[in-house]
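Inputs:
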Amino acid sequence: DAMVIQNPRYQVTQFGKPVTLSCSQTLNHNVMYWYQQKSSQAPKLLFHYYDKDFNNEADTPDNFQSRRPNTSFCFLDIRSPGLGDAAMYLCATSRDYTTGGIEAFFGQGTRLTVV
Amino acid sequence: KQEVTQIPAALSVPEGENLVLNCSFTDSAIYNLQWFRQDPGKGLTSLLLIQSSQREQTSGRLNASLDKSSGRSTLYIAASQPGDSATYLCAVRYRTSGSRLTFGEGTQLTVNP
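Outputs:
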Protein backbone atom coordinates (compact mmCIF):
# COMPACT_ATOMS: atom_id res chain seq x y z
CA ASP A 1 0.00 0.00 0.00
CA ALA A 2 1.37 3.37 -1.00
CA MET A 3 2.33 5.42 2.04
CA VAL A 4 3.54 8.58 0.29
CA ILE A 5 1.36 9.49 -2.67
CA GLN A 6 2.18 12.13 -5.22
CA ASN A 7 -0.25 13.57 -7.75
CA PRO A 8 -0.14 13.84 -10.60
CA ARG A 9 2.54 11.39 -11.79
CA TYR A 10 3.10 13.48 -14.91
CA GLN A 11 2.44 17.20 -15.28
CA VAL A 12 2.86 19.33 -18.38
CA THR A 13 2.68 23.07 -17.90
CA GLN A 14 3.29 26.10 -20.05
CA PHE A 15 6.25 28.38 -19.58
CA GLY A 16 5.31 30.94 -16.91
CA LYS A 17 2.00 29.30 -15.94
CA PRO A 18 1.72 28.53 -12.20
CA VAL A 19 1.58 24.87 -11.31
CA THR A 20 0.94 22.96 -8.08
CA LEU A 21 2.16 19.47 -7.22
CA SER A 22 0.65 17.57 -4.31
CA CYS A 23 1.83 15.01 -1.83
CA SER A 24 -0.08 13.09 0.83
CA GLN A 25 1.07 10.59 3.42
CA THR A 26 -0.58 7.95 5.57
CA LEU A 27 2.38 7.54 7.94
CA ASN A 28 1.53 10.45 10.24
CA HIS A 29 5.13 11.63 10.01
CA ASN A 30 6.17 15.00 11.40
CA VAL A 31 8.47 15.90 8.56
CA MET A 32 7.73 16.31 4.86
CA TYR A 33 10.34 17.15 2.26
CA TRP A 34 10.42 18.27 -1.37
CA TYR A 35 13.36 17.29 -3.55
CA GLN A 36 14.09 18.22 -7.16
CA GLN A 37 15.89 15.67 -9.33
CA LYS A 38 17.13 16.49 -12.80
CA SER A 39 18.13 13.82 -15.26
CA SER A 40 21.03 11.63 -14.05
CA GLN A 41 21.60 13.89 -11.05
CA ALA A 42 21.28 13.44 -7.32
CA PRO A 43 18.04 14.63 -5.70
CA LYS A 44 18.41 18.17 -4.35
CA LEU A 45 16.47 19.29 -1.26
CA LEU A 46 14.30 22.35 -1.89
CA PHE A 47 12.69 22.69 1.55
CA HIS A 48 11.03 20.76 4.32
CA TYR A 49 8.35 21.13 6.95
CA TYR A 50 8.88 20.04 10.53
CA ASP A 51 5.26 19.96 11.64
CA LYS A 52 4.11 23.44 10.56
CA ASP A 53 7.57 25.00 10.61
CA PHE A 54 8.84 25.72 7.11
CA ASN A 55 12.58 25.33 6.43
CA ASN A 56 13.85 26.66 3.14
CA GLU A 57 17.22 25.70 1.66
CA ALA A 58 19.46 28.70 1.06
CA ASP A 59 19.76 28.07 -2.67
CA THR A 60 16.10 27.32 -3.41
CA PRO A 61 14.79 29.91 -5.90
CA ASP A 62 11.97 32.22 -4.79
CA ASN A 63 9.92 30.77 -7.64
CA PHE A 64 9.33 27.71 -5.48
CA GLN A 65 6.87 27.85 -2.59
CA SER A 66 5.24 25.26 -0.39
CA ARG A 67 2.16 24.82 1.78
CA ARG A 68 1.31 22.26 4.41
CA PRO A 69 -2.33 22.70 5.48
CA ASN A 70 -2.29 19.63 7.75
CA THR A 71 -0.11 16.69 8.76
CA SER A 72 -1.12 14.57 5.78
CA PHE A 73 -0.76 16.97 2.87
CA CYS A 74 1.98 19.11 1.42
CA PHE A 75 1.99 21.13 -1.82
CA LEU A 76 4.76 22.45 -4.03
CA ASP A 77 3.86 25.61 -5.93
CA ILE A 78 5.99 26.83 -8.82
CA ARG A 79 4.90 30.39 -9.49
CA SER A 80 6.39 30.92 -12.93
CA PRO A 81 7.91 27.73 -14.30
CA GLY A 82 10.87 28.07 -16.60
CA LEU A 83 12.37 25.50 -18.92
CA GLY A 84 15.06 24.86 -16.30
CA ASP A 85 12.43 23.73 -13.81
CA ALA A 86 11.61 20.62 -15.82
CA ALA A 87 12.54 17.77 -13.51
CA MET A 88 11.28 14.96 -11.31
CA TYR A 89 9.88 16.30 -8.04
CA LEU A 90 10.07 13.91 -5.13
CA CYS A 91 8.14 14.14 -1.88
CA ALA A 92 9.46 12.34 1.19
CA THR A 93 8.49 11.95 4.83
CA SER A 94 10.17 10.95 8.06
CA ARG A 95 9.42 10.93 11.74
CA ASP A 96 10.91 13.47 14.15
CA TYR A 97 14.57 13.72 13.16
CA THR A 98 15.90 15.36 16.30
CA THR A 99 16.88 11.96 17.63
CA GLY A 100 18.85 11.29 14.49
CA GLY A 101 18.61 7.86 12.99
CA ILE A 102 15.27 7.82 11.20
CA GLU A 103 14.27 6.49 7.81
CA ALA A 104 12.97 8.55 4.90
CA PHE A 105 10.12 7.31 2.71
CA PHE A 106 9.64 8.64 -0.79
CA GLY A 107 6.69 8.89 -3.13
CA GLN A 108 6.68 7.89 -6.79
CA GLY A 109 7.48 11.38 -7.95
CA THR A 110 5.90 13.86 -10.32
CA ARG A 111 7.62 14.35 -13.67
CA LEU A 112 7.21 18.01 -14.65
CA THR A 113 7.55 19.07 -18.27
CA VAL A 114 7.58 22.76 -19.19
CA VAL A 115 6.61 23.66 -22.76
CA LYS B 1 31.82 20.41 2.27
CA GLN B 2 29.77 17.31 3.06
CA GLU B 3 29.46 15.21 -0.05
CA VAL B 4 28.53 11.68 -1.14
CA THR B 5 30.24 9.96 -4.04
CA GLN B 6 29.22 6.78 -5.81
CA ILE B 7 31.52 4.74 -8.00
CA PRO B 8 31.07 3.47 -10.65
CA ALA B 9 28.49 5.69 -12.34
CA ALA B 10 27.33 2.75 -14.45
CA LEU B 11 27.82 -0.99 -14.28
CA SER B 12 26.78 -3.79 -16.64
CA VAL B 13 26.98 -7.41 -15.53
CA PRO B 14 25.70 -10.79 -16.73
CA GLU B 15 22.85 -12.40 -14.87
CA GLY B 16 23.88 -14.46 -11.85
CA GLU B 17 26.94 -12.42 -10.99
CA ASN B 18 27.58 -11.10 -7.47
CA LEU B 19 28.37 -7.41 -7.46
CA VAL B 20 29.34 -4.54 -5.18
CA LEU B 21 28.30 -0.91 -5.41
CA ASN B 22 30.38 1.68 -3.59
CA CYS B 23 29.48 4.83 -1.69
CA SER B 24 31.87 7.20 0.05
CA PHE B 25 31.15 10.15 2.32
CA THR B 26 33.32 12.97 3.59
CA ASP B 27 32.46 13.22 7.30
CA SER B 28 32.24 10.31 9.72
CA ALA B 29 29.77 12.17 11.97
CA ILE B 30 26.60 10.69 10.54
CA TYR B 31 23.25 9.58 11.93
CA ASN B 32 22.67 6.93 9.30
CA LEU B 33 23.07 5.91 5.68
CA GLN B 34 20.27 4.75 3.43
CA TRP B 35 20.40 2.84 0.12
CA PHE B 36 17.62 3.44 -2.40
CA ARG B 37 16.61 1.95 -5.70
CA GLN B 38 15.18 4.11 -8.49
CA ASP B 39 13.58 2.67 -11.61
CA PRO B 40 13.43 4.90 -14.72
CA GLY B 41 10.89 7.69 -14.30
CA LYS B 42 9.93 6.51 -10.81
CA GLY B 43 10.47 7.60 -7.22
CA LEU B 44 12.85 6.16 -4.67
CA THR B 45 12.35 2.83 -2.95
CA SER B 46 14.21 2.37 0.32
CA LEU B 47 16.31 -0.80 0.32
CA LEU B 48 18.36 -0.70 3.50
CA LEU B 49 18.95 1.71 6.35
CA ILE B 50 22.14 1.46 8.43
CA GLN B 51 22.35 3.39 11.68
CA SER B 52 25.69 4.92 12.65
CA SER B 53 26.15 2.30 15.36
CA GLN B 54 25.70 -0.60 12.95
CA ARG B 55 28.21 -2.31 10.67
CA GLU B 56 25.83 -3.99 8.25
CA GLN B 57 22.24 -4.70 7.31
CA THR B 58 20.80 -7.50 5.20
CA SER B 59 17.59 -7.92 3.26
CA GLY B 60 17.23 -10.95 1.03
CA ARG B 61 19.98 -10.87 -1.59
CA LEU B 62 21.13 -7.43 -0.48
CA ASN B 63 23.77 -6.68 2.13
CA ALA B 64 24.92 -3.19 3.01
CA SER B 65 27.99 -2.45 5.09
CA LEU B 66 29.13 0.71 6.83
CA ASP B 67 32.64 1.76 7.83
CA LYS B 68 32.43 5.23 9.34
CA SER B 69 36.12 5.58 10.00
CA SER B 70 36.94 5.23 6.33
CA GLY B 71 33.80 6.99 5.14
CA ARG B 72 32.60 4.07 3.06
CA SER B 73 29.55 1.94 2.49
CA THR B 74 29.05 -0.92 0.09
CA LEU B 75 25.90 -2.53 -1.27
CA TYR B 76 26.43 -6.18 -2.14
CA ILE B 77 23.92 -7.82 -4.48
CA ALA B 78 24.08 -11.60 -4.67
CA ALA B 79 23.08 -13.64 -7.71
CA SER B 80 22.00 -10.62 -9.73
CA GLN B 81 18.84 -10.81 -11.88
CA PRO B 82 17.61 -8.70 -14.81
CA GLY B 83 14.95 -7.31 -12.47
CA ASP B 84 17.73 -5.74 -10.40
CA SER B 85 18.45 -3.32 -13.27
CA ALA B 86 17.90 0.18 -11.87
CA THR B 87 19.80 3.14 -10.45
CA TYR B 88 21.02 2.67 -6.89
CA LEU B 89 21.38 5.79 -4.75
CA CYS B 90 23.22 6.18 -1.49
CA ALA B 91 22.13 8.92 0.93
CA VAL B 92 23.75 10.07 4.16
CA ARG B 93 22.20 11.97 7.05
CA TYR B 94 25.08 14.00 8.45
CA ARG B 95 24.85 15.03 12.12
CA THR B 96 25.41 18.67 11.29
CA SER B 97 22.75 18.68 8.57
CA GLY B 98 19.73 17.87 10.72
CA SER B 99 16.95 16.74 8.47
CA ARG B 100 18.78 16.85 5.17
CA LEU B 101 19.71 13.70 3.26
CA THR B 102 22.80 14.17 1.10
CA PHE B 103 22.63 11.98 -1.98
CA GLY B 104 25.21 10.54 -4.31
CA GLU B 105 24.51 10.65 -8.03
CA GLY B 106 23.86 6.94 -8.15
CA THR B 107 25.12 3.86 -9.92
CA GLN B 108 23.11 2.76 -12.95
CA LEU B 109 23.08 -1.04 -12.93
CA THR B 110 22.20 -3.20 -15.92
CA VAL B 111 21.94 -6.96 -15.48
CA ASN B 112 21.98 -8.73 -18.81
CA PRO B 113 20.06 -12.02 -19.30
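Remarks. Chain B touches chain A through 26 residues (CB under 8 Å). The radius of gyration of chain B is 13 Å.
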